[in-house]
Amino acid sequence: MLVVAHPGHELRVFGWLERAHPLVCVLTDGSGAGAEGRLESTTRTLRATSATPGAVYGSLSDRAIYSAMLDHDVDIFCRLADDLADVLCARDADCVAGDAVEGYNPSHDVCRLIIDAAVRMASRSRGTAIPNYDFLLMGAPGQCPKSLQASSFFLHLDDDALARKLDAANAYPELAGEVSAALGRFGIEPFRTECLRPVDPSDRHDWAADEVPSYERYGAERVAAGVYSRVLRFQEHVRPIADALWTHTERRA
Predict the structure, then answer these.
(1) At 211, phi and psi to the nearest 5?
(2) Which parts of the chain sit beneath pLDDT 50?
(3) What DSSP designation does 238 have?
(4) Are the beta carbons of 30 and 37 closer than 8 angstroms?
(5) DSSP code for 28
(6) What pLDDT was estimated at residue 33?
(7) Are 29 and 61 in contact (CB under 8 A)?
(8) Cα–Cα distance for residue pair 173/204, rounded to 1 Å
(9) Please, which residues have CB within 8 angstroms of residue 210's CB and are 6 or more apart in sequence?
(10) Largest CA distance in the chain
(11) CA dist., res. 193 & res. 55, Å (int)
(12) Euclidean distance between CA atoms 101 and 153, whole angstroms
């Protein structure tokens, strides 16, 4: 099972999609600040890899998930965790992969918190631990701490598989800028490697309390420029979601 915050994240693990044919859940529609989402492009990608859209598939707009974070509407995130846990159990999933915490985008980081909560609940319900993995969206594709390398899953794409992955990325019109920026930053060759890294779902916050994420600094700049009215912060907004999800999973247990 693959769980991502936004449509298009699946492109980072396109080779894995082709091999595993996972059920794919997407939390938002990828509409950003606009009205149009990009789920159709992701659906086309999944069809090309024989992956399947899941029951959780773009039900929230980006505006809605940001508003929920800013307004401390933790119930939305608990419900998403419940829904994902139910899918994990119903499909008897043998592993789940999803967005990593990178401090770049709060939706990505909250998606990881939701995945971990769902894994905790589903593992307890099934009586066996469900392997839980993440992959980077902003960092180099094959980046992996030395301490995790032995327990990580590395997939190295041959030339044909890499070409199909690049074709899929270039055929995703809404992400043309992001694809161009990623290729400009890393080049093509690093995208030959896909790395799924094990995640400990018992890590309550998945972020150091004294570290300021880049989304917070960016938000402060946008508020100063008059673009945003409020800064979304880890301590004020994201950490309470992590605490609420932890309490929710303990209560459900």
Answers:
(1) -100, 130
(2) none
(3) I
(4) yes
(5) E
(6) 78
(7) yes
(8) 36
(9) none
(10) 51
(11) 29
(12) 18
Residue with tokens 């829904």: 83
Place of tokens 């060759």: 189
- Identity of the residue numbered 50: S
Amino acid at 242: A
CA distance 114 to 188: 31
Map 215-235 to HEC letters: HHHHHHHHHHCCCCCCCCCHH
Predicted TM-score (pTM) of this structure: 0.96
For 106-147, the pLDDT digits (tens) are: 999 999 999 999 999 999 999 999 999 999 999 999 999 999
Question: Which residue's structure tokens are 């509409």?
Answer: 31
The amino acid present at 162, given as its one-letter code, is L
**Closest listed residue to residue 19, CA positions, set 49, 54, 52, 53:** 49
Q: Which two tokens stand for residue 207?
A: 């972020």
Angle at 200 between CA 115 and CA 16, to 5 degrees: 60
CB 109 within 8 A of CB 207: yes
Of how many residues is the chain composed? 253
